[in-house]
Design brief:
alpha+beta
Length: about 475
């Protein structure tokens, strides 16, 4: 009996081991030889689909152009051409375990996939969200990963408003203090070229307004009277000719005898002992250096006149702003005597030197003053529109720029509720606009209202993305 029992137990153990060996994955009963020559090969599939590449069976971002296995020995899953719609066409297969899917030759490279609902979730491989919607591709150069999507209803409620970046001339206001001065081109001094005596003084007060041709004073000059007598002799004495008359007239002109006095000599044979001296120009008596009854010497200044219908404003411009001031630039002048009444003018000249003490340069602005309200030496506040005549620049409203001090950003409106924060380089600023030197193109729309809300949402998205990326990293193993 005992030998029989032992034989039965041994057979059972052998069968158990064989069954265990089959279950462990060897695929055949142990101890049984396999005739490979008679093993029927796996029938090829009649499926017409073509395998594009192979992917990791667990969905990791690992791909291969040829069949491959995972580190634990499992086969990669085939991806057929109808399953990889985003990669249709002739493709260049990726290297094994490259971590990037293939992309079409001549097409834009896909660098990832974004959530179709605008959630902060970027996938390196095609996938679906919880509702079964396909993730949208992100092409290289589009930088979709930094954009943010906001519902159109929320856009309307937030008061979001955008404007197009266009080429425009940017006027930069340059502010400087100024002082009113008389127009130096209208200054005129009144003198005699011969000694004389002032018998009467008509322009007898400083500030008096005189018109051209109006008498300023009456003068008696023996030298002028002698020249008049020579003229009468030249035209009336026998044997005298046109040359003698011309010489006598030239002598009167050399003494600066006014033309009306010479005309009177031609009409009246008797010389004038006293002459009413006419004003050469219209203007204001700025200085009076003579009194009635005074004897004046030849060349002494008697009166100084100036036309104040135009006034100069000399602006003291800071050294760092001098390079922006050009002749012809418009300017606004506000005099402290008329604070609510601005005057218009334009730059007519920029002096070629700086004041060593104040480090300022002088710009001359011409202003109309027909009513003589502006008095010379009045203080003024000047604002010059520098750059108004320059070539157009790419510009956006100043409200479109979010300036953190070290970084300047605009929010680009890409339509359908999608916005992209973009770093830019700024240039000149003025007239409510700022120049964009880099980071933006003509015709792109930027937010000019509620852009801080979109920027805050974009920063939140970036923070969530970074948080998610950190959470996806496998924990480091300590040696």
């Amino acid at each position: 009996m005992k030998p029989s029992v032992l034989m039965i137990a041994g057979a059972l153990a052998l069968l158990g081991a064989a069954a265990a060996g089959y279950r462990t994955g060897t695929g055949h009963w142990p101890g049984l030889a396999q005739d490979r020559s008679t093993t029927a090969p796996i029938a090829p599939s009649h499926d017409s689909r073509r395998v594009v590449y192979w992917r990791d069976p667990d969905g990791r971002p690992a791909y291969s152009a040829a069949p491959a296995k995972t580190p634990d020995g499992r086969d990669y899953m085939p991806v057929y051409d109808d399953e990889a719609a985003d990669f249709a066409g002739n493709r260049k297969a990726p290297a094994a375990n490259s971590g990037q899917p293939p992309h079409a030759k001549g097409e834009r490279k896909i660098i990832g996939y974004r959530n179709p609902m605008g959630l902060p979730d970027i996938s390196p491989v095609p996938k679906k969200d919880s509702m079964g919607m396909d993730y949208l591709p992100i092409y290289e150069g589009e930088e979709e990963g930094s954009s943010v999507k906001v519902s159109l209803d929320r856009v309307q409620r937030s008061g979001v408003r955008s404007e197009v970046a266009v080429m425009r001339a940017i006027a930069q206001p340059v502010r400087a203090p100024g002082v009113a001065k008389p127009d130096e081109r209208t200054l005129r001094t009144v003198t005699l070229r011969a000694d004389g005596f002032i018998e009467a003084l008509y322009a007898n007060e400083t500030g008096k307004h005189v018109r051209a041709g109006e008498p300023l004073f009456r003068v008696y000059s023996p030298q002028i009277v002698s020249a008049e007598i020579d003229y009468r002799t030249a035209i009336s004495a026998p044997g005298r000719g046109p040359r003698d008359e011309a010489g006598a007239i030239q002598k009167l002109k050399n003494l600066d005898v006014p033309e009306p006095v010479i005309a009177q000599l031609r009409a009246n044979p008797n010389p004038s002992l006293s002459i009413d001296w006419p004003s050469p120009v219209s203007g204001i008596v700025m200085e009076k250096k003579v009194v009635e009854g005074q004897m004046v010497r030849a060349g002494e200044e008697m009166l100084r006149l100036a036309d104040l219908t135009k006034i100069w404003v000399i602006a003291n411009v800071a050294e760092q702003d001098m390079g922006m001031i050009k002749v012809g630039a418009p300017a606004k002048i506000s005099f402290r005597a008329f604070p609510d009444e601005p005057f218009e003018g334009h730059v007519t000249f920029v002096l070629h030197e700086l004041d060593m003490a104040s480090r300022t340069g002088k710009a001359r602005i011409e202003v109309d003053n027909p009513e003589h309200r502006i008095k010379h030496e009045m203080y003024a506040d000047v604002e010059i529109s520098a750059g108004s005549g320059d070539s157009p620049r790419l510009a956006v409203p100043t409200s479109a720029v979010i300036d953190s001090g070290s970084r300047q950003v605009v929010i680009v409106d890409r339509g359908e509720g999608r916005f992209e924060p973009r770093a830019v380089k700024l240039g000149v600023q003025g007239d409510g606009f700022v120049e964009i030197r880099d980071g933006l193109k003509v015709g792109e729309k930027v937010l000019v209202a509620a852009n801080f809300l979109i920027d805050a949402e974009s920063n939140l998205k970036a923070a969530l993305k970074g948080f998610t990326a950190d959470g996806d990293k496998p924990p480091e193993t300590k040696p």
